[in-house]
Amino acid sequence: MINILINDAESQTQDLLIKCLKTAGFEVIFTDKCLISVHLKQDNLSTTPESKKSNIQESIFPSIPRLHEVFEFIELNYHQSISLKEVAQAVGYSSAYLTDLVRRLTGKTVNNWIIERRIAQACTLLLQTNYSVDEIALKVGYQNINHFYCQFRDYYKDTPCAWRELQRCKIAYNQTQIRK
Q1: Is the pLDDT of residue 54 over 50?
Q2: Sheet of 2-5: strands edge to edge?
Q3: How deeply is 179 buried, as exposed, middle or buried, from its count of CB atoms within 10 A (0-12, 13-18, 19+)?
Q4: Which of 41, 77, 94, 126 could link 164 by a cystine bridge, Cβ 3.0 to 4.6 Å?
Q5: What is the rounded distance in angstroms from the CA atom of residue 175 to the CA atom of residue 180?
Q6: CATH number, domain at 48?
C-alpha cells in the first residue's frame, strides 16, 4: 500500500489525482482531505489495449450509455488533434446537439472531457516515465506546448514539472514511512 499526501486540499485536485492513479492501475483504498491510500491491482498488470481502455473508461468517463460512443471516440483519439466537429461526425450528431447533450448529461463540454483525458494521461506519464514535459504534451495530443502548460496549471495550480517533483517526493516519503 502507498500513501499519498496531498498539499492542495481542493476537491477538484484530489478527484483528478484519484482518476490519474486509477488510470495507472492503482486501487484507491482510503481517502481523506489530504491523504490517499492506494495499492497496485495485480489484475491491472495486463498491457492489452482492451484492458487499458476499460480501466480508463471506468475511471475517467461516467457510465452513460447514450454517451458511450462519444467517450470511446475521445479515448481512441485524445492523443491527436480532435475537434468537437470530428467527435460529432463520428457519433452521427450535429455539433450543437452533441454539445447540449453532453453538457446536460455530464455538466461538462466535449472539450472539457478531451482536456481531462489528456491531463489524466499526462499525470500517468509524469509519474511513470522520465519523458520531458514537452514530450508528454505531444504524446497526449497537444500541438502547442504552452497550451498544455496553461491547461495543466488550471487543473493543478502548478506546473507539470513542479507537480511531478512534488508527487514523486510524496511517494518516496510515504514509502519510507511504510517501511518504518
Answers
A1: no
A2: 2-5, 35-40, 26-31
A3: exposed
A4: 126
A5: 9
A6: 1.10.10.60
Which residues lie closer than 8 Å to 110 by C-beta, 6 or more apart? 70, 74, 84, 87, 88, 98, 99, 102
Is 101 inside a domain boundary? no
Comparison of pLDDT for 29 and 169, the residue scoring more: 169
CA 142 distance to own-chain centroid: 14
Total number of domains constituting the chain = 1
| Assigned domain for 55 exists | yes
Residue 76 cell numbers, joined:
481512441
Confirm whether 25 is domain-assigned. Answer: yes
Quick one: cell of 136? 508528454
Stretch (H or E) spanning 74: helix 68-77
Boundaries of domain holding 51: 2-62+108-179
- The three three-digit cell numbers of residue 78, written as one number: 485524445
What was the pLDDT predicted at 46?
A: 36
Rounded distance between C-alpha atoms, residue 123 and residue 15, angstroms: 13
How many Å separate Cα 57 from the centre of its chain? 10
Tell me, what amino acid is at 177?
Q
CA 123/CA 56 separation, integer angstroms: 13
| 84 within domain boundaries | no
Residue 44 scores a pLDDT above 50: no
